[in-house]
Amino acid sequence: MELKWLEDYLALVDCQNFTTAASIRSSSQPAFSRRIQALEAWLGVELIDRSKKPFRFTPTALEHEATIRALVNQIYQVRNQAQSSSQDRVTLTLAAQHSLLVSSFLPHFLDKLAASIKNLNYRVVSENMDTCAAMFLKGEVDMLIVYETVGAQSAIPNHLSLRKTLGSDEMILVAHPDVMTRCYQGPKKQNLPLLIYPVGSFFGQIVWAEELPRVLRNQNATIACESSFAVGLREMATAATGAAWLPRSIVLQDLTEGNLIQLNGISDPIAMNVVAHITKLNEASPARELRAIF
Known about the structure:
This protein is an alpha/beta fold. It contains 13 helices and 11 strands. It has helices at 3-15, 18-24, 29-43, 59-86, 98-101, 105-116, 129-137, 177-185, 202-210, 212-218, 230-238, 248-257, 285-293, and strands spanning 48-49, 56-57, 90-97, 120-127, 143-148, 161-175, 192-196, 221-226, 243-247, 261-262, 270-279.
């Protein structure tokens, strides 16, 4: 059995057409068909019902498609891991808050690391603040990257980590222009709907502590939705569902294009820092090289 037979079969599944699949696989249609037949012969079962036009996949083929696809992926994964081991590549594992994954900070920071550490691979785990911190304290990741404010910092003891501030950001209240028209300029003014975070989440803590009570007190505002995910609240805000507090770094393009506007007169920005914690619990290569850089 040859790996290319499995890849041919998956190309046929994706295209549902022998001619197109053969073209994608840089093969003539007769040669491509022979390879599909060779795979069927090796498996000892028919994958294609050729008695009907257009052809159909047999029940056996449909049943095992996911397994074949997973097998091909696993083969390439094993090859990649073997190549990485032979090239003495360094694998860095880091945990980061969900919102940092879609900001400009993390990609730029990883680019800088790749330029500083030779043969660097990295694995990024995206979770909420508490889960990320717990993974760091258990020694499951080499680095933790999170937002912090003066009043809300991650509970990482100094003796367990080397702390480095990567940059600054701010939490701002934004809304679609249509929301502001409905609430402040239209003939029938409505209450300002607020899209907020649960009070127990990190973003919820800082918004509830610094801005939300004042906005509720001074504006005709109501809480319309609660969600832990900044990216989800951004989607709702751009759909004119309500106003949301979001990190400026993830709405820069929306503000530039006018999809969102900052509500300066209603809420003040909340200053935040993007902070990296490098573990002191692990003396393996990634953590050691990170500490040397910082």
